[in-house]
Specification:
This protein is of the alpha+beta class. Helices cover 30% and strands 24% of the residues. The termini are far apart.
Length: 187
């Protein structure tokens, strides 16, 4: 699968590059990552190098995951990352602390969903989402873009110890986009 750049409302999604490694280390060293994400902890430079050079690049090459850097401009500073696995449609995202709370991840997700559901893109019929129980910010974003709350289940993504832990889960189709369903943990 060839990497694709996506451009939208205040965000540009590009491939990750070596110039992003230092910021990835900085952002992924935030204690919130230890609590809610499955990234290695403590997060080291070698983890960021693997993420950029092997994980993200390899996903595009194999065609089993599309991972993008979230930026304000094509050649701009890294703000975060977002990706979707193929064919499962599992979506994951993170944003560096200085960029949270401004609608950036939502704008990035809208681009990814357009690409994921498009026959010219990934041609997926369904996207799935999960997060560690307690990650209210991730749940709020998922609901805001149209994911339906499916309940609590063992997460599909193993934690850093290789175990699957209980997670909040959701799913959406193209028809669900923009709808707001009831999520018991959210007002």
């Amino acid at each position: 699968m060839e990497p694709v750049t996506l451009v939208g409302d205040g965000v540009v999604l590009t491939t990750l590059r070596d110039a992003d490694i230092d910021l990835i280390v900085e952002y992924c060293s935030d204690p919130i990552f230890e609590r809610f994400l499955t990234t290695p902890w403590p997060y080291e430079r070698s983890h960021a190098e693997f993420f950029v050079r092997d994980y993200a690049a390899g996903g595009w090459e194999r065609g089993d995951e599309a991972t993008w850097a979230i930026r304000g401009e094509a050649d701009g500073e890294l703000w975060g990352a977002i990706g979707v696995r193929v064919p499962s449609g599992s979506v994951g995202y993170w944003l560096g602390a200085p960029h949270r709370g401004r609608g950036i991840t939502r704008a990035a997700f809208e681009l990814v969903a357009d690409f994921a559901f498009s026959p010219e893109g990934l041609g997926l019929e369904r996207l799935t989402w999960e997060c560690a129980i307690g990650n209210i910010a991730s749940a709020a974003l998922a609901r805001s873009v149209g994911f339906r709350y499916d309940g609590e289940a063992l997460g599909e993504v193993a934690n850093r110890d290789g175990d699957r832990e209980p997670a909040w889960t959701g799913s959406m189709t193209a028809a669900d986009r923009g709808t707001r369903s009831v999520w018991p943990m959210l007002p």
